[in-house]
């Protein structure tokens, strides 16, 4: 075992025999005395009469506690302490010192020693100290386990999917998480692009550094520029003080450029230069600032088409597309639907303190639907059904109309009074459904919905007013 105290679970008992104590002293009698006490407490011990032997022991075994003589021949206790901490930062080092050098011992605690004991010490004193040090080591180990748990949660813990497509995705995420290259994440709206970007960052080595998402689609161009690159005081009206750019703030971490396809062309050039030169120039400044950041970008647009059409720079596309990762749509992996439904049900039950289940018919209908809004649509559908249902079971009737209508055979407009009895849906109803469906897909973003539907914003507002106060979600 490489780390003796890396206990598998937090609830594990403290097992002294799993802890290694290294005793470093040039006086044999002290080494033997300490060894006796430590072994009587159940610890495994090693001894060293010099700094050089101590370093060798540190290489050979994972040491948890060190009893270190302050005065070893030929080396200063502080130097040895530093070397031990460098080789094994987690070890609890107890300095053993003569009364005269208590001052240095106190200083050594500032350098990372766990505690000190003055010679001559009695056995009970040593016993107490070793017991406390062991508790400290265990606490560190527990924190480590906890941190790992949090990490696992932040990595793919919350990406649900067991289909071969998703298994493949998990493998790629693991690989790219440990590299520094840009990754272009492709996928339809609602497939989980942001979730995947987060898991790439949080399963990588820089997980403790910032992860900063920037939505290039919803910010106005001037704002994206000043957000990304920062600005100096007076750069524009309202710039009352200087502000660092996100590319600089994310230092050592990740910037996630969401909806990169929406980035205006002049900003594309500036971003490209920043990535190539690893420097940015804040708005209004003449000085350049070095950046050290990983870029992840996402889009639901076909960037190759955008390149051909001249709306996206080819060189930037190549720069971002070093690795590309395509997230499958939900209709390509329908076998994941029950798992996802279960996941959202479980979350609902936990959050609301209820015990909801879903009827077989409702699940069947969900399996047959194509989910144009992908997981986000499924998530909204579950939330809505949970809110609508009157009992513990979610039935077909609790699902949105577009699902209930999905399997109806004929969808042609009829003239007249708009009766639905023939299974035929009138044009106005189809239009209303299309609008509500789109709004749901874009999470209520009316501007975006109008754009997707190919109608003006005012037309959309007018239509919504016509439909009355009915809630589309
Ligand atoms: N595999 C998954 N497992 C569980 N939840 C998921 C999964 N994929 C996506 N989600 C959830 O679906 C919602 C949409 O995901 P996300 O925002 O990452 O998608 P997106 O591709 O960025 O969408 P858009 O293009 O609309 O911005 C989020 O609430 C996310 O937590
Ligand atoms: Mg997104």
In short:
By secondary structure, the protein is an alpha/beta fold.
Amount of helix: 40-55%
Structural class: alpha/beta
* CATH level-3 fold name of the largest domain: Rossmann fold
Ends apart, CA distance between termini: 54 Å
| Tally of individual domains | 4
* Order of neighbouring strands in the sheet with most strands: 2-1-3-6-7
Q: What is the global morphology?
A: elongated
**Which ranges are low-confidence, i.e. pLDDT below 50, for 5 or more consecutive residues?**
1-13, 410-423
Bound molecules: adenosine-5'-triphosphate, magnesium ion
Chain-averaged pLDDT: 84
Q: Would you identify the CATH architecture of the largest domain?
A: 3-Layer(aba) Sandwich
Relevant terms:
473 residues, alpha/beta, Rossmann fold, Helicase, Ruva Protein, domain 3, 4 domains, 5-stranded parallel β-sheet, 19 helices, elongated, binds adenosine-5'-triphosphate, binds magnesium ion
Q: Can you characterise this structure?
A:
The chain has 473 residues and is an alpha/beta fold. The model is unreliable at 1-13 and 410-423 (pLDDT under 50). It is elongated, with a radius of gyration of 31 Å. The strands form six sheets. Strands 2-1-3-6-7 form a five-stranded parallel β-sheet, sandwiched between helices. Strands 9-12-15-8-16 form a five-stranded parallel β-sheet, with helices on one face. Strands 4-5 form a two-stranded antiparallel sheet. The protein folds into four domains: 16-150, Response regulator (Rossmann fold, 3-Layer(aba) Sandwich), CATH 3.40.50.2300; 156-328, P-loop containing nucleotide triphosphate hydrolases (Rossmann fold, 3-Layer(aba) Sandwich), CATH 3.40.50; 331-407, Helicase, Ruva Protein, domain 3 (Orthogonal Bundle); 419-473, Arc Repressor Mutant, subunit A, CATH 1.10.10.60. It starts with 19 loop residues before the first strand and ends in a 6-residue tail after the last helix. It has helices at residues 28-40, 51-60, 77-87, 102-110, 123-154, 164-177, 193-202, 221-229, 246-249, 265-277, 303-309, 314-320, 337-352, 360-368, 374-388, 401-406, 427-441, 446-453, 457-467, and strands at residues 20-24, 44-48, 65-69, 71-72, 75-76, 92-98, 115-119, 183-186, 211-215, 230-231, 243-244, 254-258, 279-280, 289-290, 294-299, 323-326, 357-358, 393-394. Residues 193-194, 258 line the site of magnesium ion (MG). Adenosine-5'-triphosphate binds next to α7 and α15.
């Amino acid at each position: 075992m490489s780390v003796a105290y890396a206990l598998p679970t937090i609830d594990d008992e403290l097992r002294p025999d799993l802890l290694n104590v290294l005793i470093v002293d040039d006086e044999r009698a002290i080494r033997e005395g300490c060894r006796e006490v430590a072994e009587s407490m159940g610890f495994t011990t090693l001894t060293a009469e010099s700094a050089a032997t101590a370093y060798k022991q540190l290489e050979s075994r994972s040491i948890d506690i060190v009893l270190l003589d302050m005065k070893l021949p030929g080396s200063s206790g502080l130097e040895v302490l530093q070397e031990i901490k460098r080789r094994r930062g987690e070890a609890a080092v107890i300095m053993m010192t003569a009364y005269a050098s208590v001052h240095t011992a106190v200083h050594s605690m500032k350098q990372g020693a766990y505690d000190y004991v003055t010679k001559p010490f009695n056995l009970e004193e040593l016993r107490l100290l070793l017991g406390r040090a062991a508790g400290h080591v265990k606490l560190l180990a527990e924190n480590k386990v906890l941190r790992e748990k949090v990490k696992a949660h932040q990595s793919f813990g919350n990406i649900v999917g067991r289909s071969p497509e998703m298994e493949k995705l998990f493998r790629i995420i693991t690989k790219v998480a440990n590299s520094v290259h840009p990754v272009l994440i492709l996928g339809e709206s609602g497939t989980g692009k942001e979730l995947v970007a987060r898991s790439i960052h949080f399963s990588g080595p820089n997980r403790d550094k910032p992860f900063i998402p920037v939505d290039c689609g919803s910010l106005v161009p001037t704002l994206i520029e000043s957000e990304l690159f920062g600005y100096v005081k007076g750069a524009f009206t309202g710039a009352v003080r200087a502000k660092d750019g996100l590319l600089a703030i994310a230092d050592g971490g990740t910037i996630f450029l969401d909806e990169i396809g929406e980035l205006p062309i002049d900003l594309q050039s500036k971003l490209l230069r920043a990535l190539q030169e690893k420097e940015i120039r804040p708005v209004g400044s003449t000085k350049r600032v070095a950046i050290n950041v990983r870029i992840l970008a996402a889009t639901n647009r076909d960037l190759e088409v955008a390149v051909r059409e001249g709306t996206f720079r080819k060189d930037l596309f190549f720069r971002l597309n070093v690795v590309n990762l395509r997230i499958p749509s939900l209709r390509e992996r329908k076998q994941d639907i029950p798992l996802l439904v279960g996941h959202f049900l479980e979350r609902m039950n936990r959050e609301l303190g209820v015990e909801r289940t879903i009827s077989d018919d409702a699940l069947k209908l969900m399996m047959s639907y194509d989910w144009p809004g992908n997981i986000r649509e499924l998530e909204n559908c579950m939330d809505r059904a949970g809110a609508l249902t009157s009992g513990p079971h979610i039935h077909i009737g609790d699902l949105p109309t577009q699902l209930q209508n999905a399997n109806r055979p004929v969808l042609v407009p009829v003239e007249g009074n708009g009766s639905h009895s023939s299974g035929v849906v009138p044009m106005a109803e189809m239009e209303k459904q299309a609008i509500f469906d789109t709004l749901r897909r874009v999470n209520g973003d009316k501007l975006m919905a109008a754009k997707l539907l190919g109608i003006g914003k005012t037309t959309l507002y007018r239509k919504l007013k016509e439909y009355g106060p009915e809630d589309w979600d």
